Amino acid sequence: MNFFDYIKNESFFKPFTFKYRRVYYDCIQILIDKTKELPVLYESDAKDSITLHLKNIELQNDGEAGEAGNIPGAAQEAGGEPYTAQENGGDLQAASIISLFRECGWLLPREIGRNGEYVVNVAIDCRRVMDFLRKMTEKSSEGMMSNRIFAMYDTIKSAFDEDSGRTERPYTNILVPLIDNETELKNELTDLKENISTIMKAVIAFQDINSFGQFIMKDEMLDRFFSEYFFVKNNGLIPTQISFIRNKLRVLRQGALFEKMVEECAENLQLAEDEARQRVERYFAELQYFLSVEYEDNMGLIDNRINNYYNLANTRIMLMASNGVRLEAVLNGFLNAVSKLPEEEQESAMEKAGKCSRIVSQKYVGCKSFEKMKRLKNEGENIGLAAVELSEEEKRAKTEELFRSAPNRYSVERVAKFLEAQLGSDHEFKLKEREVQTKEEAIMYAAAMLYARNIEFPYEIEIFEEMVKTDVADINNMKICKHSEPHRNSCEN
């Protein structure tokens, strides 16, 4: 349906074409706000609100005219408008403004309230159009792109929750919010691309380094623009959520909810089943194409434009700093000329060139230097160990399991293998005849002293008072021999 067929009032947009269109816009916004505050807005209250607004504007314009030197027409030059003139043959007053609003369909026809006074009712179409215009003018680009993606993710995620209310009316509560957020996200990406070109044009227009520096440091729009883009690009949640939405859209398109969406669409929009199915199919195809292809293409195009902006800004800074002189060419010519001079003249030329420049190191203390470390809270969880009594059998079983799972690096078997490697083909040896080079070897000899009296230990150890000094530790000298009957006497003598 065409918009003007829906409005059915040719005068609906006439107030925006009049001379005092700014006043009319402010007045209708005031009436809309009043209807939200009061349960019933009577005509007397509406007139009082409009009259107060007109007086405030008149005082403001009088002040601007006084600053201009009380010259006739100074209010118009300062941006104001004379509110004593006539519009359509009537004075610009509260009653005439309300009559104009009723004529163009912004207000409903007169209706008498319970107390016998006329009631002012704002038309639904006017309320929706004015709310849209207010949102458009008060729109902030901070966080809009990411919020659209988060909203789509929450919608599709809640649709698959158990006992989800969205499945009762899936077309209205699932598909329509998805397509609305997708459309708004497209608009945000388009605004992003247009803002980059605007920034590039502004950079080209700068003629001095001071104005360019102020643009970079003070322009809040630039900061918000780049921060939102890099948040969407570098945040790890965004690609995961977009992939999740794509996968769940395939499931919805092939599931039972799809037929339910078609039925609801046909019922709400008064369409035939084939037309409703085509509409739902088009919505799904549009969502899939945008999330799979169009979104990545737009982000890549924006990335390239931002890189071009950085390169342009860098080139502009170099040109403004050099006052149009190509420093690279000048330095290249200077170095070529110096290279052709004798060595003594080269040193003299470089010393003179060094005196022409001064390099100063500047360092700043950042905010991180003053940041205090915060301890992580355990969020009220009980981190204590529960006291549990074990029986003797459970203790024995856990002890055996502990021994099996944690092998001892210096067990009897490992110490015996170490001594066997050290002994070689000999029947015995003394510690001072060997070199202890590592800490592991020293601990092996110490463990052998401890295992000397164990029956399962296959070696006999005889310890002397003499100390053996090594790079690792000082150890008592000892004699080590194989624990066997033929050689037992030789170890004891």
Brief digest:
The protein is mainly alpha-helical and 493 residues long. It contains 19 helices and seven strands. The strands form three sheets. Strands 5-7-6 form a three-stranded antiparallel β-sheet, sandwiched between helices. The chain has a two-stranded antiparallel sheet with strand order 1-2.
Would you kindly provide a written description of the structure presented here, covering whatever features stand out?
With 493 residues, the chain is mostly helical. It has helices spanning 3-7, 21-37, 43-67, 74-77, 94-103, 124-137, 144-159, 170-205, 209-218, 220-234, 237-254, 256-269, 273-322, 327-339, 343-355, 392-405, 412-423, 439-450, 485-492, and strands at 86-87, 90-91, 111-112, 118-119, 428-430, 459-469, 474-482. The chain has a three-stranded antiparallel beta sheet with strand order 5-7-6, with helices on both faces. A two-stranded antiparallel ribbon has the order 1-2. A hairpin with a 2-residue loop joins strand 1 and strand 2 (90-91). Helix 8 runs parallel beside helix 13, helix 12 (256-269) crosses helix 13 (273-322) and helix 17 packs across helix 18. The longest helix is centred in the middle third of the chain and has 50 residues, at 273-322.
